[in-house]
Design brief:
About 60% of the residues lie in helices and about 0% in strands. It has about 325 residues and is mainly α.
Length: about 325
């Protein structure tokens, strides 16, 4: 593409020289130079178009398995960072890209000439190919054996779509910078077209909703016990009867069992981006923590077990909050 851009002025100049030669009978050297430049230009356009097509194919064909392509802890895949880098490398050459797409029918832009699209159409094509590749990898996570298969699938998509939004999404603080010579600074390139946040953002939000639903099961244990079901031993108001105590014991025991199971599955997963990690920790807390705090404060004051109160009350809210703050911290 850079070659196309640099050849443009020389081509125009040599063509003018050839035109003047035809009118004034100058030597054939200008005509030879002009024809050579045109041939180089055509070859460069053809090779550039093939390279752009091969990049898109490589993204689509990225393997669905292997640590580099589908990390065990569901972090950002290498292909995502590669695509961001590729888009930033290509983005400054808007006029050169137009020179190619005007002359070549491309899979993402079959129109030629003045009806051809600009670089945004190619960027969109690459992002769509990447999303297809990521979704294929996520599907393979879901097919894996083990209790963490579904969690990895959704977390993987969240990690990667959030990465794309953070590195390519435009905002009031992040916009593409124009250099003094009018070119784009590729390192700051951002996709300002609304399709990007609409498409990638929707996938992220949908996957986040699916992810936090894993923690909803904890709320099934945090139901109140009707006062009419509570009776005390020996007429006192301190130690519950065996039957009444079991009603509260079963709720605490069920919560502890599911909480420990969930935590053991989700804690080893990785969210490298601190902004996303904090967001997910907060969202997980919002699912059950306020309800658990009220439940714990209400029933921990009642002696529902004669010998094993500590066993049922081993997760006070402060400890749960501390544990949740350590989620997704795998390095």
């Amino acid at each position: 593409l850079d070659g196309v851009r640099m050849l443009g002025p020389s081509l125009a100049k040599l063509c003018d020289m050839s035109h003047e030669k035809d009118k004034g009978g100058a030597s054939d050297s200008a005509s030879i130079a002009s024809n050579l430049c045109i041939a180089i230009h055509r070859t460069t356009v053809k090779n550039a178009a093939r390279t752009l097509e091969n990049l898109a194919k490589a993204i689509q064909a990225d393997p669905l398995d292997g640590e580099k392509h589908r990390p065990r802890d569901a972090r950002v895949a290498t292909v995502s960072s590669d695509v961001v880098r590729a888009i930033r490398l290509v983005s400054p050459f808007t006029s050169a890209y137009k020179s190619v797409t005007k002359r070549r029918a491309l899979a993402w832009d079959p129109k030629m000439g003045d009806d051809s699209n600009d670089l945004d159409s190619y960027v969109r094509f690459l992002i769509m190919r990447l999303l297809n590749s990521l979704q294929g990898k996520a599907l393979n996570y879901a097919k894996d054996p083990g209790a963490d298969a579904s969690a990895k699938s959704t977390l993987f998509m969240m990690n990667n779509t959030f990465y794309l939004l953070e590195h390519l999404g435009a905002s009031s603080r992040h916009k593409t910078k124009q250099l003094p010579d009018g070119e784009i600074d590729g390192d700051t390139f951002r996709i300002e077209s609304p399709w990007f946040r609409d498409r990638v953002g929707k996938i992220f939000e949908a996957e986040k909703t699916k992810y936090v639903q894993h923690w909803e099961v904890l709320n099934t244990h945090l139901t109140s016990v009707d006062k009419s079901e509570l009776s005390y031993q020996g007429g006192s108001d301190k130690l519950l009867s065996l039957e009444s105590g079991r009603l509260i014991k079963s709720r605490f025991a069920g919560f502890i069992e599911d909480f420990e199971k969930l935590y053991s599955v989700h804690q080893p997963l990785a969210v490298v981006d601190p902004k996303l990690r904090t967001m997910l920790q907060r969202d997980v807390m919002n699912v059950f923590y306020p309800r658990y705090t009220r439940f714990f404060e209400k029933y921990s004051r009642i002696q529902f077990s004669k010998k094993n109160m500590d066993q049922y009350l081993k997760y006070p809210p402060a400890r749960v909050e501390q544990m949740l703050s350590e989620l997704f911290a795998a390095q």
